[in-house]
Amino acid sequence: MKSRKPLLSALAAGTLLFAGSLIAQQDMPPQTPPPSPTDTAPQPLPPQTVPPTPPAAGTAAAAPTSQVDTATMNTPAGQLEVRSSMPPPPPAGPAPSFEQLSGGGKYISEEQASAYPLLANDFLHADRNRDGRISKSEYKRWTDDK
């Protein structure tokens, strides 16, 4: 006598597919109508760029200032103005010595590189041979490039 297991599994799969197609064809609940034209949100004005102010005469030239973007929007409570810009980069200072970062070892691991954020950010670039650690020559090449 032959096994009827394949026949039963095919019958069950067909039943599930048929039931799924019936469920998918049921009527969806009615959608709410779109809001009337009088209830529209305020339209934003096009963004404007405010040029950076030049440094005052007689002062040392600082790092270039980032671009400040300004967007203005009319709201029921009045005009709203949003100004945005990139924050200044954190001060990094000079690169620490290889010995300080490596803890006296022959290599700097990725975990040890996190002590100096600029190296942690450039770890893949500094690791020229892609062995997961930075040798003294790789570190020297990276600091000379900076």
Short précis:
The chain has six helices and five strands, in the order αβββαβαααβα. The protein has 146 residues and is an alpha+beta fold.
Structural account:
It contains 6 helices and 5 strands, in the order H-E-E-E-H-E-H-H-H-E-H. By secondary structure, it is α+β, with helices and mostly antiparallel strands. A 3-stranded antiparallel β-sheet has the order 1-2-3, with no helix packed on it. A two-stranded antiparallel sheet has the order 4-5. Strand 2 and strand 3 (78-84) form a beta hairpin. The longest helix has 20 residues, at 5-24. The model is unreliable at 54-64 (pLDDT under 50).
Topology:
Layout: H1 5-24, E1 48-50, E2 68-75, E3 78-84, H2 98-102, E4 107-109, H3 110-113, H4 117-121, H5 123-126, E5 133-135, H6 136-145
Antiparallel strand pairs: 1-2, 2-3, 4-5
